[in-house]
Amino acid sequence: MHKFAELNSARAAQLFADYCTAQGLDVSAVVQRQDCAELYASTKQLAQVEHEFSLFMQQPSHPRYQAAAWQLSQPTNDNARVLPQFNPLALWHQAPVTLAVLVLCLLVYAWQQVDWRGSSGLLQLSDPVQLWRWFTPMLLHFSLTHLVFNVAWWWYLGRQLEQRQGAVILLNITLSVALISNAMQYFMVGPQFGGLSGVVYGLFGYFWLTGRLNPAQGLQLSSGMAGFMLLWLVLGFMDVLWISMANWAHLGGLVAGLGWAWLLRRQHGPKTPQAY
């Protein structure tokens, strides 16, 4: 995404962004304050957006802008609602890393149900000399609840990051966070652990700090959600929960995610998001 304008009215910026959305143009408004807002557009559509913006600046009160905002605010007619189609090829094109990790987790879980000893024996960090084992524990899950919780958060956070900053950044963050979180759990407790939650905590940390250091990236995490994850982390270390958790992997992942957010704090704004 490319920043093309800054307005002294958040309302005007949002009005123009809504109009562009209604016209099929990818424009987003990032509100800093009520008297300061930035406008971002897809690089491919920049010329067309800038033309529309010049028209908007000439007649910001034109009815067509209000009409577009009103159209977007209307609820969808239930009788006419069309459910989105599941298109695996489109999902792969839009978020290949996110989808690949999700599918791997599902396949490994199915393997665990058939051959628990074989899958754990190959993927747990039981032999540090075999380098792949520093990463593969993130694919192991020990219950259906464990699996669903982790892959749901992975899909929600990983897909956003990949669509806005690209597959390479998500892959680098995922592998480095997995390595750090797995190593921390291994050295503090031992090899008997698994799960994607260390990486999920890394993404939580990345989203939380990035949203404060560089809101133009479009990655936001509410304070309530961040507070819940921190509370869950603290309760895990207090050992008052009914489940056994890889607490050091969670902590290591969180610290690694915060570190990535700091390193990429000057990263440019989001790439063109794909809706499906």
Radius of gyration: 22 Å
Going by CATH, the homologous superfamily of the largest domain would be Rhomboid-like
The strands making up the biggest β-sheet line up spatially as: 1-3-2
How many β-strands, per DSSP? 3
Strand content: 5-15%
State the helical fraction: 55-70%
- The SSE string, one letter per element, is EHEEHHHHHHHHHH
Determine the number of helices (DSSP H or I, runs of at least 4 residues).
Answer: 11
Transmembrane segments: 89-111, 131-156, 168-187, 193-209, 221-242, 248-264
EC number: 3.4.21.105
InterPro entries: GlpG_N_sf, Peptidase_S54_GlpG_N, Peptidase_S54_rhomboid_dom, Rhomboid-like_sf, Rhomboid_protease_GlpG, Rhomboid_protease_S54
Domain Peptidase S54 GlpG peptidase N-terminal: 1-75
How is this structure best described in words?
The chain is mainly alpha-helical and 276 residues long. It folds into 2 domains: 2-80, Alpha-Beta Plaits; 88-263, Rhomboid-like fold. Helices cover 60% and strands 7% of the residues. The protein contains 11 helices and 3 strands, in the order βαββαααααααααα. The chain has a 3-stranded antiparallel beta sheet. β2 and β3 form a beta hairpin. α4 (88-94) packs across α5. It is elongated and about 70 Å long. Mean pLDDT is 84; it is low at 76-85 and 270-276.
